[in-house]
## 1
Amino acid sequence: MMDYVTAKWLHILSSTLLFGTGIGTAFYMFHASLTRDPPIVASIAKNVVTADWLFTATTIIIQPVTGFYLVYLADIPLTSRWIMWSIGLYLLAAACWLPVVWLQINMKRLAVDASKGKIDLPALYWRYFRWWVALGIPAFVALVVVFYLMVAKPV
């Protein structure tokens, strides 16, 4: 059994990795896309997909495990409003992230193909890009609110 401080440290560390990786990869993917340069987009997209699998996929699992464990150790009812809101917003962020991963993988493939063919990024890339942005915004906002709820624990 893990003590409270260790569990809290893991929870904070994994939330930092989750949020930091998300905002960092989004920043680079967004700006690489705006260059409209297929080799640049392909290179950045490869790194974004790798970072998502290494950091986001692992921390998206660690977060609820450590979170529920902390709730258990602190004897906080799961029916507490801030816990229920945190869970709901976390699930919203995760529901946005899953299609974003699929979009990123396909955007990477389209950018690699465009780079190899020395052609512009296709219209499909830009359709995926719009969806990627549209899903990223609510995921970002949801996690910002979850961070607030974790810190403030409003009654």
Note: The chain has four helices and no strands.
## 2
Amino acid sequence: MGGGPATPPRFASVDALRGLTVAAMLLVNTPGDWGHVYAPLLHAPWHGCTPTDLVFPFFLFIVGVSIALGVVPRLERGAGRAPLARAVVLRSLRIIGLGLLLHLTAWWWLDQAYFRPWGVLQRIGLCFLGAGMVALWLKPRAQWLLLTVLLLGGWALLALGGSSEPWDNLASRIDDALAGPWLYQHDPASGRGHDPEGLPSTLGALATTLLGLRAGDWLRRGATQRLWQAGLALLLLGLPWSLLLPWNKNLWTSSYVAWTGGWAMLALAAAHVLVDRRGWPALGRSFGVNAIAAYAGSALMVYALAASGAWSWLYATLFAGWMTPRFGPYLPSLAFALAFTGFWWLVVRWMDRRGWHLRI
């Protein structure tokens, strides 16, 4: 972001936590065989929350933390709101554009039947835009008020929709009206569809990002105790709330925001104490400072390997062929994902040592 007479301080703990989250993204997205994946490395089929369901909320939470550490200090140091807002808009458009470009590439290389407008990077871009504008124009009390409105409003909208089940919920019906057959899932027979990164559920994702925004403000002010307290409070809120409104990543329900936000808040507090204060190694930093390079680069690599047929050949030759008879089909599938993630760790580690940090 431009503006400001000085560069805000960088917290190694945030880079480390972002990096570990990106590494987890790669790990859960690239098993050798989707038919044989250990349960914790899969998303919940609908309601519920597995460890994999924590990954995307953690990343959006860190997006909010980064806004608090990067944009807000520049505003406080005298940078104008208009230039900062313009920088936020342009960066969000670049993130969304990269997401669309990746989907176009997948559509072209993998001969998919349709182009999908929604996606992970598109959601990140929208949440960055929303949280960035909130950080620039709303005071902390107003931010908390907006967060409350998003949580209660999201709950009310799902209740008014009459169902939280697949295909029939209000979010899916809105997404289907907007994008129809270009959704992640679409049933031509019924004309109904669903997208886990659709527009209505992005409001819940924005709430997660706003939690990160408030956590980042506490972090830079040294209020670590508030991180611990808020994390525990969110868990105590999200657990009983799930009895009324189940945790659901696809719908990004309000109980899911509270539950995953609580764990993210505690993870940030722990990382800050261990890395920033006690000097522990910032594990994951290389991924953290090159998150875009790792995510986009790995996606392109997946598309290329899949389109060429090399993916199945590599898996069968280097992993499944000799491991499956000895260990069964699940371990080689995990080993492939670990090797893929390890390869990209070597790439971003090499980039980091040379000071190459890709930003958009």
Note: Confidence is low (pLDDT under 50) at residues 1-6.
